[in-house]
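Here comes a specimen:
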Amino acid sequence: MKKTIALVTGGFTGESVISLKSAAVVEKTIDREKYEVYKIFVYPGDWHYLNAGGEKIPVNLNDFSINLGDEKITFDGVFNILHGSPGEDGKLAGYFDMLGIPYTTCDQLTSAITMNKGYTKAIVQDIPELNVAKSIQLFENSAENAARIQQELTLPLFIKPNNGGSSIGMSKVKTWEELAEALENAFAEDSQVLVEEFVSGREFSIGVFKGKGQITVLPATEIVSSKEFFDYEAKYVPGVTEEITPGRMNEEEVDRVGRIVTKVYEKLNCKGAVRIDYFLQHETGKFFFIEINTVPGQTETSLISQQVRAIGMEVKEFYTQLIEEMLGEK
């Protein structure tokens, strides 16, 4: 008997464009012999399924069901590929928790916390061998805060919105004259902003997931960008960034990174697949945590897909493991 899965996509932010691309890949890759899949679009005030004729079928929010003719479709589980809000920040997770419907991503609390870069760093910073850049979390754009930054931190700095995942509103500040504009750009995206000292190092992104009851650390991808940092353009414009999978790390680094990211996954009580970004500092080789993404992209070229293929696993099998883990099947 096939399980009925809702593939949830769309969203309330600019990241919905990436979510739709990810969903298209999941939709065509997922094992149709095991799963009946319905793609559910979630937009503000507009949750719907498109039937074969392209007609919008509204979702009944009382029980997250759809009616196709005389048939009522309910779901055994949700494959969540909705980046940003409400899919990545815990809102959707809380809704599904209330309905008792399982989903492939982190729970409500973990999702909410990890969308906040500052709070996440506060939780993981005491993990052995893990370092975090010195930073200040701001809740308003004031002259006092600008002065505090100059007193407490050393240039160059990264200024980034504290919530959000696609590097929109992020700036690198090399001189104090650039600070005001950078803060303005970040506060235009978010009411909280993280200002942190720049760490010079090799940048990596690594997938970690739970399947068959075990945590698996995928091979890291090394990010070599022609841009100064991995911003929105570097992430999504072809040719701007070189992605090397597996990344160039020696055996000791691979082992150490594996230990650290497994601890991060456990400490944050993650579920499903996450992607953790980090630096290995140039002078010391130390691991510096950047951020965690709890609904990583699943486009053809996404880092997680590259990493899954690098261990000889088909992406279809990867999705099956995520769904089986969600449903409690072994």
User: Anything to note?
Assistant: The longest helix spans residues 251-267. The domain at 135-197 is CATH 3.30.1490.20 (Dna Ligase; domain 1).
